[in-house]
Amino acid sequence: MSLRPAWLTFRRYAAATTGMTLTLFAIGVYTAATGSGLACEAQWPLCSDQLIPAMTINPDFIEWFHRAWAMVTGFLIIGTAGWTWLGSFDRRTRLAATLAVVILPLQITVGAITVTVGGLVPGGYAVSTHAAHLVVALTIFTLLGLATVWGGGGGRGSARLLRVAATVGVAGIAASAVFSRAVPFVTYSPGAQAGFYAAGLAGHLGLVATVAFATEAVRSGYPGVSASAAGTVRFLAAGAMAALVATLLLGRDLVLYTPGWERLNLAALSVAVALAAAAAWVARDGDDAGAATEPIGGD
What we know:
The chain is an all-alpha fold. It has 10 helices and no strands. The radius of gyration is 20 Å and the shape is globular.
């Protein structure tokens, strides 16, 4: 007899873990943007000689809350991988979830180094460690997204899920543009930076799912989606993802943000929106006619 409630499926658990990771990403950006990462006097895991600082909104609490959220999220990530090994999941799902756990210690280590400038690791609060922290976090988030997509509903997608994923990708990128430093709609404050990454990561997740579903449609077919249309969607979504990742990297202070970098950021954001919108269009309207006449690749 299982102690797990019937409503708690793997896909829901993995989706919740992915959502926690997205939120952690946004909290981390806010923490760094406010300078709160250095508030704990270069100590880790303690914060200003305390295990739990005063529960008031101040830099110490912001950094401590970021660490606490990261700890809970880390355990959820481990649980996701454990579930794939205990249940009947295919190799790709198990591999994605396991890789997320394998590189988790690296993310924890880089995070610890980032906030120990002048402490355990002199120079830890540097561009290189911030970049590594961002890239590793994005890798873990992507792996969790893939595990969620592949691990639910018997591992199969559908034409409807493909279209939903592509729509989420477009919506997320468009929403991120409102907060982006490349588009002066709002001041690029710490709150706006957190909003940019929350929306951008939602768009990234949609594109990851789009590529995964489109790849499956090319290989084994979805009713109502031709192989050629699925291949086009995959190509467009992958291009949008690459451009979006560039904007996510440029959203942090990893380079001296000159007018030239600003133009490059705007160009990358524009490409991401255009390619994602094209992928959503093909997924919605460009497949039905072809599916009636073109065979779909499969076994």
